[in-house]
Amino acid sequence: MAYSTAFSQAVSILLLIHVKMEEFRFEFVSAKVIAECLKAPVPTVVKILKSLNAAGITTTKEGAKGGVLLAKPISEITLLDVFLAIEHGTPLFKTQLDYFIENPQVDDLKSKVINCLQDAEKAMKDSLKNTTLADIYKLR
């Protein structure tokens, strides 16, 4: 698999921001506070926040009272939104299947393996698209 742990970290970060926004009535949450709450290195949190901000999932404010807010309600943020913000279209499976045998049967098998893996990735993305952060938040 080619995916990083940043996806699950991003989901945790977004849910924490949501909780803090409710708790503090829409005040910005700093990367330092997020890092402390999740016991994660500040540079890791900052890198993830940059990706989420670039995707329009969060918004940031500079300065002493700055930090990050969710750009939209958690009911409008799907796991697929988060996934695409973090993984930037990286495929789940590496499908560079180079065989040194020239044979139509081998080519057919290679094609079937690639199609199977692509179908699995599509099913995963479809599942992520059908789950919002609000769905996860309700499970707590």
From TrEMBL:
Bilayer-crossing regions: none
InterPro entries per record: TR_Rrf2-type_CS, Tscrpt_reg_Rrf2, WH-like_DNA-bd_sf, WH_DNA-bd_sf
Pfam families found in the cross-reference section: Rrf2
Domain of life: Bacteria
PANTHER family assigned to the protein according to its UniProt record, in alphabetical order: HTH-TYPE TRANSCRIPTIONAL REGULATOR YWGB-RELATED (PTHR33221:SF15), WINGED HELIX-TURN-HELIX TRANSCRIPTIONAL REGULATOR, RRF2 FAMILY (PTHR33221)
Name of the protein: Rrf2 family transcriptional regulator
Lineage, uppermost ranks: Bacteria, Bacillati, Bacillota, Clostridia, Eubacteriales
